[in-house]
Structure formats: C-alpha cells, structure tokens
Amino acid sequence: MDCLIVGGGLIGLLCARELAREGATVRVVDKGVAGKEASWAGGGILSPLYPWRYPASVTILARWSQARYEEFLRQMKEETGVDPQWERSGLLILDTGERESAQAWAAGNGVSLQLLEGESITRCEPALEETWSEAFWLPEVAQLRNPRLLKALKLSLMWDEVELMEHTEVNRLLQDGGQVKGVETASGRLLADRVILTVGAWSGTLLPGLRKVEPVQGQMVAFRALPGLLSRIVLNRGYYVIPRRDGVILAGSTVEYRGFDKEVTAEGREQLRAEALKMVPALAEHPLVHHWAGLRPGSPEGIPLIGEHPRIGGLFINTGHFRNGVVTALASARLLTDLIVGREPIVIPEPYGILE
Ligand SMILES: Cc1cc2nc3c(=O)[nH]c(=O)nc-3n(C[C@H](O)[C@H](O)[C@H](O)COP(=O)(O)OP(=O)(O)OC[C@H]3O[C@@H](n4cnc5c(N)ncnc54)[C@H](O)[C@@H]3O)c2cc1C
Q1: pTM exceeding the 0.90 threshold for the entire prediction
Q2: Could you tell which of 326, 332, 336 is best to mutate to test the pocket of ligand 1, judged by most ligand atoms within 8 Å of the CB?
C-alpha cells in the first residue's frame, strides 16, 4: 500500500507511524518544516479544558489516548533518546460554576474529580492565593512537552523508513473518475493510491467543500521561573498555567478568529500575563521570555473529521481537532489507520464521518 500524507503535524506524523508499522510505504509532505505549526504551539495538556463541555465523541478519543500516552512516550524515549516529559501534574479548575454537569460527567466516565474547599486548595497548590473558596481537582490529568514529542516522532519515522518531504506545498488533489491519484505540488506531481489529508487549520484550502474547518488563533506566553514554584496545571475562566519540569511556566491561551493571521499582539500578551498573575501572583516576579501563536483546526463542537471522503475514493481525512488535537491524537491516528487497513476500528467511526 502506497500512502501519501499531506501535512506533518502531530496527526500526520502519528498516522505515518501507524501506517508504516502496518507495512505501508509512507511519504509525508509538508509545506514548511514538519511539526512546527499548531502541534508545536500547543500546551500539551492531556485533557480537554472543562472536559464535561464536549460531546461523547471527543471524550471517547481523549480517554482512549490518555490510557496509552504514558507507555507510548516511554517507548518514544527508548527508541529515540528524546524524552517528551510525560508528567501527571493534575488539573485544578478554579471556576466551579458547572458543578452538576462536571460531577455527572466524571462519574459517567470513571474520572476522578474532587471538589476542594477552602484551605485544601492551597494545600493542593501552594502557589495560589488563599482567595479561592472552591476548586475542582482532577488528579489524573497529565501533560507532555509537544515540541519534544514531535522531535522524537520525526526521528522514529526515519527508522520506520517514512520519507519526509519538507518545504513542499500541495496545491491541489489529483483525481480521476472519483478516485484520488495523488497531489500536485509546486515542484511536480506525487502519485499515490491513498492520500491522507492532515493539514489541520489549512484543510479548507485543499478541500473547500469540507464541513467547516477553520483556523482559530491561540497565543501563548512562557515565564522563566524556578522548578517548584508551581506544580499543578491550573485553569480559570478559560486561561491556564502549565508548569514544566525545568521551571518554565506556560500561560495560555487566546481564542481568536482572525483567518490565517499568526501574528502575536501586545494585547494578547498582556491578557495572558494578567490572567496568569490572577492565578499565581508570584509570577509577577518572573520575566516573560517567549510569546508565540498557533492556528488550531477549529471545527463545530470540536469533533474531528476522521475517515474516507464520501465521493473521492482513496482520499482519507484526519483533521478538525480544534483545542484537543494532542490529547486525542493517539486514538485519531489509530482510528484512521484501522479504516485504511480494513481492521476492526477502536471506536465507532460514524460520529467523525466526513460530511460536505
Ligand atoms: C495555543 C494552542 C494551545 C493548544 N493546547 C493544546 C493542549 O494543551 N492540548 C491539546 O490536546 N491540544 C492543544 N491544542 C490543539 C492542538 O495543538 C491541535 O489540535 C493539533 O496540534 C492539530 O494537529 P494537526 O496535525 O492537525 O495540525 P498542525 O500541527 O497545524 O499540522 C498541520 C500541518 O499541515 C501542513 N500543511 C498545511 N497546508 C499544507 C499544504 N497545502 N501542503 C503541505 N502541507 C501543508 C502545515 O505546515 C502543518 O505542519 C492547542 C493549540 C494551540 C494553537
């Protein structure tokens, strides 16, 4: 089987790994450097924010992946020497307004979610002020360093003999009689029996008829701090802080509908800093050392599109992961591979079907 994967973000690179391990000949093309767009820009939190707000189809992919990430990253480290730093930091949510739905969701999905009150909040995370009266504590939530995972994946793909063509933009799909034949790039045609579109926020540029996938900008900043200042991922009013092992603390993220504009703004930076300081006042003493943005592949309700195109045989799609493309990635890549190789799928594929 000859597979051409268009788009080398986390979703494309994981699909490449799965397919190569099923014996396919795999080539990945990316318009820039693979693994430098949304998948690089993200926070690496291995849980949806406010997970009860998502449909079951997103929860199912997240839960499947969460159960496998620790072992998968251990394997990545062993194969490549690059440690993606999986860490069970837990998630502390400071806005508890949706108590009933949160608790019902946790009970229904076997997730540990505790309601903390008063002093138990600062006992859980001493970096917080004592002003919070209630918080949800999800001790099982983990994180990873996504740039490191992408680096490890790219290395492992070399050993899997996956060909990676960077700086090669795909301009259009080639089809004949309802069957995909390959793609056209600026430097010529690339032919394949199966084409897999994993171009994230850019999906609509190659398949304009696709159910809406649109770019949604997210800005992030990083504070340089010392290890130990913060131990938990903390979330409040949609903003979060993430402690990395080396002391760096990420603060995210904005949600902006600005087309393909990836420029960061002074307002974005100030907003992220202010929201981070509300949660961890001690951050005021620490410098902001980075500020960046990425384009999420936004989709209705955050439900990704995973499957074969209904009218173009041999064309497969795996996109639209919106805010949860890291936490759902393992399951998404596995599900698409199941569908391509004709294996029993890990989950029912219908909710992710490609509609036009
Ligand atoms: C600020 C921010 C924070 C986030 N935090 C989290 C989080 O904590 N947890 C979580 O689970 N998710 C998070 N996400 C979401 C997650 O990062 C995305 O859902 C996921 O990375 C999407 O992966 P992808 O591979 O589809 O897209 P991308 O990583 O964007 O990859 C798409 C690739 O396609 C290539 N491409 C595009 N067009 C073409 C073309 N015509 N020809 C060839 N190549 C092309 C691009 O160059 C790119 O490399 C966050 C996102 C952002 C922006």
Answers
A1: yes
A2: 326
